Amino acid sequence: MSNRKGIGSHQSGVMLNDEWLTPPEIISLLGPFDLDPCAPIDRPWPTANKHYTVKDNGLLQNWEGYTWCNPPYGLQAGWWLEKLAMHNNGIALIFARTETAMFVKYVWKQATSLLFLYGRLNFYFVDGSRAPANSGAPSVLVAYGPKADEMLKFHENNLKGKYIKLK
What we know:
about 170 residues; alpha/beta; two-stranded parallel sheet; globular
């Protein structure tokens, strides 16, 4: 029996893994993406045409094109959202912690639209296997820019969520 927990699991106060892969069906529906600036080093499927990993420090790189961003969860997620907001052409997947300072500053005040996902996601491990526990918190897709907004709106039903236009 595996002792691996979900990323937001209430059973553990320590994050044992910071590389959690987006369910591939989300990438398939919303892509293809030109760039994933915070991709895992090892991944069983591509998330974009170009990937930056922790070795590249995607925050320091130039971002071009339609961007996918599943940032490291935790306090540093705000840095990624800030850069994606400035880039204004992409989608982020984050926890729907709508009351946090990060969410207010980089989502409510800067995003184009949101897609709150019903239920909790099961992310994947870098070996391609699905995590047995769900993420432990609700998730939201955050769109920055017109293309990302259109993709969220178009796939609202396919992704089983609630679309909200912000600007």
